[in-house]
Each structure stands twice: as structure tokens, then as C-alpha cells.
Protein 1
Amino acid sequence: MAKQKFMTLGRHIIEGEKLHPHATGELSHLLRDLSLAAKVISLEVNKAGLVDLLGFTGDNNVHGEQVKKLDLFAHNMLIRAMDHGEHLCVMASEEEENIIHISKKHKVGKYVLLFDPLDGSSNIDANVSIGTIFSIYKRISPDNTPGTMEDCLQLGLKQVAAGYVVYGSSTILVYTAGHGVHAFTLDPSFGEFLLSYEDIQIPKKSKIYSINEGNYLYWHKGLKNYIKYLQDEDKNTQRPYSSRYIGSMVADIHRNLLYGGIFMYPADSRNAHGKLRLMYECNPIAYIIEQAGGRASDGKKRILEIQPETLHQRTPIFCGSEEDVLMVEKFMAEEDKVKA
């Protein structure tokens, strides 16, 4: 835990600016606007069953998935909280097929925001922890013009900030702006995010793995071998590992970030490109994991070096404790050699 000191999210962001002598304050204001949206979403998540926000809307999103009422609320709240701050030139959401332009009523800024408004929303009705994931880039199109698709389709390496919010027994916002990973817990008594973990470092090796083993039949043979390896007993390598899979990416990632672990959502014979979205989930999570000293790849290549081609591009992901990710990459590479 962080040392006992009163550090709000706003104050922490401002102090982080001091590390960048040419900072203008725009990114700080953008992050504070995001935290406001997170507070409102958190409030609605906590009372969703009381105000008829649970269940489906009856519509499908761009991916053909049924849209939850709370999904739609979070999507709209983020847009309403962010579109008038004059810090953004364009946005993109996992729930929207195309980019989201800033209204002509508002001045456009120099940043780009991509977000998954409510990750893990299939768990909403079961009261399992869910979350918001966000990713921020600097625009590459000319200033004072509407943002473009090219602004959104940048390498993950180009992110200037990323984070997620977990809505669970408490609401926790985790973010990085390139100078470490920090977590803040929302104190509902006066509505402020207070520093709870500073400069998080994920352990280099763990004893936890997170994966949906119901898909085992369809996996790469190397991945099957790796899972069996984790389940074998060997005191020298601290095996067997424990399986911990919630099914809500932010919840699984948050636990592994604090305690160590590897999160895996692989491609399989039914989903050749995996199921998670590069721009809304994998890039921001990979940036956070790397900033905390971990590793994130698609099994072969660093996630942050994947060139995006479409807004809703999917990718496999293996991320978490560095030694564990390297090990699964080794197992998969060895199987590929056998096949070759």
C-alpha cells in the first residue's frame, strides 16, 4: 500500500506534469474529466438494479453482441463528459462502429481518446466486477481540424496515457502517463479518488494464471502444453500454479497487476485473431503492464508494436509477469518449430 498521505488524483496528475517541463496542462485536464465520468458511472453501477439499468436494451452493437443498458449509459456518459473539454479532436468507442467526431460547437484539441465503456459487461447482472478502459494519443493530423481515422489507428507505442477503472467492492482508477502505474480508490464520503498504490511493479514471476479453460479443445498445441506444465507439480519452479479467472478483463488484470500473474486470451481454431480488441482493450492494458515492469504480446510479437488496420481489430493477448509471458511464448514457439 502507499504511504499514509493525502494524495488526490488531481494533485497527483499535476505533480506528474512537473516531470515534463513543456507540459501545457491539457492532458491533466483530460484525465480529470475522465475521472469525473468514472465517478458518475460508478454511482450508476452501484445502484443499477434499483433504477432499471440492468439487462439488455434489445439492440446489438457493432460486434453483433447484445447491448446492456449499463453499457449504453457508460458509452454516452463518457462522450458527454469528454466532448466539450476542448482537449480532444476525435474519440472512438468499442460500442460505436465509426469514429466519434467532436461537435462543431466545441473547439478541437490535440488528443485522441479511445475507450471500452464497460468491459466485462456480460457479468453485470451477476454483480461481478466490471470496468472502463481508456487510451490516449496525440493527434497526427493538422491542428485545429477535425480528427481522422488515422489519428485513432496509431501504434500502441504512441500512447501518452492509458488506464482503467474497476467497479467492484470499491471503485479503483489505475493510470499511467509514462512515469509509472498508480492506483486511486474512490472515497464515496466526499467523492475523491485517493492514492492507494504508487508506482506499482508487477512481480517478475507468479503462481497465478488466468484463462478460460473451457476453450482448451480449440487452442494451439503449444498453449495446451504450457497449461499442462503449469498444472504439474515441481517445488523448484513453484508449480502447480493456481487458476484464477473472473471473466472480466479489468478484474483479472487488476489482481495480477498487484499480486503477479499471467492473463491469456488466445486465438483458437474458431477465432483465428482472438476476441479482444486491440485498440480498446489490449493496447491500453499492454501499456499499463509494461509501465509496471511486465510483458504483453500476442504470443509472438509485442502488443504495442502491432500496426492497427481497423478500429475494431482483434488480437490474441498474453500479458502479466514477464517470466511467465516469456515461458508461454517459448512453449508456443517450440510447437511451431515441430510443425515446421
Protein 2
Amino acid sequence: MKKIHSTPGASVHKSSFVPPVIESASTSTAAIIGSFSKGPMMSPQQVRTWVAFEKKYGGLGTEALSSLCTKPFFDNGGKAIRVVRIGSEQIKGVPPFLQGLSLLDRIGDFNILFIPQTEQLPDTHAITVMHAAIALVAKHRAMYVLDVPQRDAPRQTVRALTTWLNQQSGIHHPNVVMYAPRIQLPQSRKKASLHTIPASGAIAGVMARTDQQRGVWKAPAGTTAILHGVQSIEQTLTQPEMGQLTRLGINPIRQTSPSQVVAWGARTLSSNREWQYLTVRRLALFLESSIQQGLGWVVDEPNDEQLWSHIRQAIEVFLQSLFRKGAFQGHKAQEAYFVKCGPDTISSSDQIAGNVNIMIGFAPLKPAEFINLTIQQKAKSVRQA
């Protein structure tokens, strides 16, 4: 503490403490659970290139679905993926998937999850895996790119997808996204038929690429969201069909030229209007993760006015840096975000319990309305100070 004299006979004590800078949390580390021809079993490993993946888990020669879906992740700009190998071939039961999810839960540190082999499971098994995956991504502030089961019934048409989605409960979650139709990759052998696979790996790569090039607040959709390495799509959608999918929260994949396929939508499956846009949801998750990680020092501080001031200062500096990068709407900071942490968010009982309640509001690029977040940190009880 340093003493600053302002008027004769009076003094003001001002803290010289400067809160640590809040760093941006990762948004583009993917995770895949599935079967691979080789590699560590039930031991999540991080891989950073396709060459390294081929060496450790096997390449496309095996024609394993999970490997076929991993290649587009790297082709589309993905830089890091956690691989959880649960078998060597098609998995018939649910337990290996649940074990893989449990292993991923212990490690955390992933932002985008996809499990392509749910496509090969019976409906009842696939739904069990999906619900477990949704619980996991909700816990870790990640997104789940869901692939529709195809074993019990083909679900390639808009009508079939609509019927299936309307029959589900529990998957209309803000951390879940779904894309259609499936994509087609060229085979290594000339004149061979195309590989038709779920789009989840390619979409995860496009998300990662967009984050790195533009920021998590930029939608991974439109003419810039090209799916590299994809030759075509399973079926061409008409404009009315794309509109129908969008209304359901399913993001269309569109072939814009004979050699170019793009992701044409960026919505979640959420029924909550506030979280229907993928960019809004991912930006909120990013803010929550970054701020909670950046305020780890709070736990050792007394829960008082001085701490609250330092918290507001740290968060405002962080949000201002994002505002300058174009993450929010508004011509000035007051129109783009606000931070509340003080008597209006923290009661006397919260002080005693060591609860620090922080409210943050931000104006995403779309839609044009404020989104409010509430974050709770732990600090020392005022009785311990």
C-alpha cells in the first residue's frame, strides 16, 4: 500500500496492486473418440499434424471411419486434436464410448468434440452416447458436432432428418451443432468410388481455422467457410430444403461449384433464442473460460471492495482488448459491454461465504442484443481476512 496526501490533515490509501492480465482461453482444440487401426488404447493423446496422426494411429488405407473424419480436420486448418482410441474396428456396444468420454473428462482441455462412429450405432445406443457427450461438453464449455445415426434407418433426406430430430429430447442444447448432408471425399485409388462420411471432422477444422484467422466471434459459415479436401456432398439441397433445415437448427452444407463445398449455416440446436447462433454461444463460452482461468488469484484475496475493484479492472481490460479486435457491436466500449462486481452482485452473506458474483454483459455481432453472463469465483471470507 502507498499513502497519497491530497489535502492538509487528510490522506488517502491507494493499493499499488495491479491485477494479472486475463489471457484468452483456447477455443480450437478438438477431440475425437473412436476406433483406429493402431495407437495407445484408452489413453487420450494430443496430435498436431496429419503426418503425426498417421504415424501413431494409422492412415486412410484402413478406411476406418474415425480416421477418414480426422483427415478433414487437419485439411481445414485444425492444429491440435485429442485422440481417444477405444477400439480397432467398428464398436458394437456403448461402454467403450462412455469410457472414452470419461477419460476425456479427466483431461479436459478441448473445445470441439466429434464422435463419427455414432453414425454406425443402433439408435438407442447412439442416443445414450450423445447424451453423455452433451453432458461432457456442457461441463467443459465445449461444442459437440453431432453425427446422426444411420444404422437403423437411412437419414440423408431433409424429411428423414426432420423426423429424427423431432423425435429426440435432450439434444436441443446450446452446445450442440448439427450439419447436413454428409460429405464425400476422393479415395486414394483412381476411379474408386467416393468415401461418404459425416461432416463433423471437416466442420471442426473450419471452426478452428476461423478462430485462428478471424476470432471465435466470426461465424464459420458462408463463402469463406470452404471445406477443403471435400469433393462433393451426398445430395444437393434446394433453397426451400436449406431453409427448412435452418429453421430446425441444422446447418446446411452447400456445393457452390463443382470443386467447392461450404458450410452455409452457423446455428446451434438450442431451443433458447438467446443461444441459437453458434458465434454467440462460443463467444460466451470463451469469455467464461478466459475470465475464470484469469481470475485464479482471487481465491487468496479477502472478499471486499478492493478485490471487487481489481476484478472489474482486470475484466474491463480484457473486454476492451476484444472490443478493439471487433468481437462486439457498438461504436464505443459503453455500447459493447459492461462489468458488475460489487454490492449490487455480492450480498453480505456472499462475502462471509467467500462468493464473488460477477455479471458481464456483451453485445455480440449478431443478434443485436445484449447477452448477460454470471460468473462465480471463490475468495477468502471477510471473517478470514
Protein 3
Amino acid sequence: MLKHLCVAFALVLSATAVQAERLKDIASIQGVRSNQLIGYGLVVGLNGTGDQTTQTPFTVQTFNNMMAQFGIKVPSGGNVQLKNVAAVSIHADLPAFSKPGQTIDVTISSIGNAKSLRGGSLLMTPLKGIDGNVYAIAQGNLVVGGFDAEGKDGSRITVNVPSAGRIPGGATVERPVPSGFDQGNSLTLNLNRSDFTTAKHIVDKINELLGPGVATAIDGGSVRVTAPMDPSQRVDYISVLENLEVNPGQAVAKVIINSRTGTIVIGQNVKVSPAAVTHGSLTVTISEDPIVSQPNPLSNGETAVVPNSTVRANQEAKPMFKFGPGTTLDEIVRAVNQVGAAPSDLMAILEALKQAGALQADLIVI
């Protein structure tokens, strides 16, 4: 009986230690999402930093097609030099519930060999979705954070990326994206990080507020919630749900090692079984100091150079430290700091503990 009480008390302590988070921060509504848009167009008005048309024929082709729409025919075979024009790709995210007339930000990137888009203007460009339909129209003056300068002697300086820019509010929405928000008598909440404990806590919290059976867990990553059919009531309903505070389940114990930068991140629940660790280095130094061998005056001998090698071994003395059962993160860091291990040494220690079966965590090397 006492054992069960101790286990229950430990679970209560662990639950209270976890900080509660709003439901809107750990889950999203299925079907309520942004959609990617893409387009192809021309940026004009550049100060001689546009595409070199001899190497980017598609820029000239696009320019000719645009001029043909205005009834202007460019003579075929003409050597057209468009140093102030650049072919670009445009992409944007169309937020959920966007309505015609609203504006969204767009990003423009050169797809030719333009040196800079600074000072350019994007001509009217349709933005299409994955289904091929036009959902927005983009146009406007670019904001470019980088710049490029070149001298007559060939010296050049480039800051940031001058071949890409943005137009805040540069696209106008022309078509809404259908959403399943107002369809059916239920909604599905998808967790940002799948966790069975978190899903159970969400179900318990919603049912505690609205009654039993309102929320049911589909799996470790989704929760189905009954919802009113009236869209206006559904908005109020979701507003109440997304502000509920839920205690998320603790993440799996992990140790992340970035071997390139030497960064080591140890998760909260990482523990070490009883183990003793010592870590040091042995340095062997071999120095050559040849000496001259001089024979006696009447020995008829010859002067010779005799090699003289000196071998020294220096082993760095570092104390052994011991991990007791259930060692926590604080104790691991404290023990390693006392030994004075560098990040590379700590990587070796953690890998050795994992191989010995003493590290109770997933060791991930990136």
C-alpha cells in the first residue's frame, strides 16, 4: 500500500512540475491551414543589374510575350539587350480564411543571372496554387536588404543577398480557399508534437469543462471534439477551447549532440544508471638531440654524429567520478564540470555511457 502511495505522490509531483500551456499553442485545427502560392514574372527598372539576355533567353521570351499582349511585336532575330529587366519567381503563403481584397506579403527571387533586384518593380503577376487556379495578384516595388557594388578594376563587394527581396502587402487575394471548418458536427485537433499523455490530458480537460464524451482521442496525435453546426457558435466554441490550459506530457529523454559545432543539449528526463567514469589523455613526446662522437687523438678513429633520442610520456591526471542510481541532469553537469571536460570530451563520455547501457536516453548525433 505504501509503495502505491509513493508512486501516486511522485506522479502528482511530476504533473505539477510541468508548466501548463494553452491548447492553441500545442495543437491546431485540422483543415485550418495556410496554402502556398507561386508565380513567375518580370522585375523592371533595374539600374543595369538585370539578366544578361544572351545567357537567359527565357527573359527575352517572357518580355516578348508581355509586349505582344499590348499589341507590340518585337522584331524576331533582333539582339534585344534588357539590362534593366530580370526574370523572377514569386512565392507567398495564403493564410487560412483569407478573403478577396485582402493583401499578403510576397517574396521575389531572381531565377536568372541578375546581379541585384534593388530599385526594381514587379509587374502584375498571377499567383497560383497547387490546383492551378489563380488565388492572388502580385505587383509593387521591391524592398531589398542587400546591395552589390563593383569597381572598374573588377573589385566587388556584396552585402547580404541582393538578388532577392520582398513586397509587404504586395499581393491582393482574388479567390478564397475552401475550408472544412464549418462542415460536419465535429472538429479534429492535431497535436504539434504527438504524445499519448498530452492527448489524454486534452481529452480530460475538455470533458471536465463541457461534459463526458465531448472529446475523444483518435490516436497519440489527434483529438476529435464535437462542435455546434452554426458557424457563429462554432467560432465562440473554438475560442473557449483554444484558451484552455493543458499540462503537456514530458518529452522523451534525449541527448542531442552536434558534432560540427560541439553543441550538446541534455533533456530534462535524462538519467544515468550507476557507473564510474574517468577520462584523460596520454601525450607521448619524442625529441631528437644528436651528439658528436669525437675519437681519441691516436685511435685513428673518425668523428661521427650519434643519434640521441629522448622519449617522454605525460598522462593528464583527471579524477574518476561516479554516477549513482537515478542521477539527474544537474548532477551530470556538475560532475563533468568538476572534471573540466571539454565539449569533445563530454561527447566521448556520453557515447561511452550509452554503449555501456548506463545512459537512460536516446543519444542523437546530428
